[in-house]
Design goal:
The structure is a single chain. This protein has four helices and no strands. By secondary structure, it is mainly α.
Length: 116
């Protein structure tokens, strides 16, 4: 735990996480429910970490949906991307249930750029 900022270090488990914040962190990985998570638990550091990652996944899902509507010929490629975002969502939910704040592969580094 970073004593100066009172924020858990990345990859570390929080000391005590309320069940409400765990639920909100799980919701963050379920598509549009990331908005509900943000509204309810944006002040909790643990939930906020997962909300940022869930938001990146949601933006990717929206972009793939819009591109899929315009370029339907690439739908097999877009399907692979959708499966990958689904797998990353499951990894994120497992991390929440374990109480970890680990970056997701490929998208975790982008979540740092969102000032939520």
């Amino acid at each position: 735990m970073d004593v100066q900022n009172n924020v858990p270090n990345e990859g570390s488990a929080p000391e005590k996480v309320e069940s409400k914040n765990v639920l909100m962190a799980i919701f963050a990985y379920i598509g549009p429910l990331v908005i509900v998570s943000y509204i309810i638990a944006k002040d909790n550091a643990f939930a906020k970490f997962h909300i940022k990652q869930g938001f990146v996944l949601f933006v990717i899902e929206l972009a793939v949906w819009v591109l899929g509507m315009m370029m339907w010929q690439l739908m097999p490629l877009f399907s692979i991307i959708n499966i990958a975002t689904f797998a990353l969502s499951i990894i994120g939910i497992v991390n929440v249930l374990k109480g970890k704040q680990e970056e997701l592969p490929f998208v975790g580094k982008f979540s740092k750029h969102f000032p939520l």
